[in-house]
Amino acid sequence: MADKDDSAAALIERARKAATRAYAPYSGFSVGCAIEAEDGSIATGSNMENACYRLGTCAEISALTSAQQAFGLSKIRRIAVAGGHLGDDGMLVGAQAVTPCGGCRQAIAEASDLADHDIQVISASGDGETVSTTTIAALLPASFGPKNLKDADG
Fold first, then answer.
1. 57-101: pLDDT as tens digits
2. What are the residues facing 131 on neighbouring strands?
3. Catalytic hit among 38, 49, 60, 110
4. Which CATH number goes with the domain that contains 76?
5. What is the pTM of this model?
6. Within a domain: residue 23?
7. Residue 115 zone, left/alpha/beta (φ > 0; ψ -120 to 50; rest)
8. Half-sphere exposure of residue 142, counting CA atoms within 13 Å on the CB side?
């Protein structure tokens, strides 16, 4: 489902800008994420690779950490993700919309559980032309989160 409203476009642009600040020397694939709170505040993040590949950090985790510090996970309304490679001019390019990986979907689902509403996820291509809008519940149905722990002993 396409989403080209002005507020979504502005959030996508923030995600694209964040991707230009990614540290991706190994894959050459830069990802940025912009998270919007209920009050309109924005937190951003980008991926950070490491020579020890498994120590890299996804843009969504980086942005979720920033959002927790800025306004709290329970205040998240929607998330935009964009990715591609940097062109010669330093701008983000790429034609395929980028969706969160499985681990990031789990982290977003946790925030959704804390917020007590389904978080909107906007996925965009590097050039910002291809956009898909969905929810975290659609991306990760039957997820496991804090509410599943109600029966835990302790």
1. 999 999 999 999 999 999 999 999 999 999 999 999 999 999 999
2. 124
3. 60
4. 3.40.140.10
5. 0.92
6. yes
7. alpha
8. 0
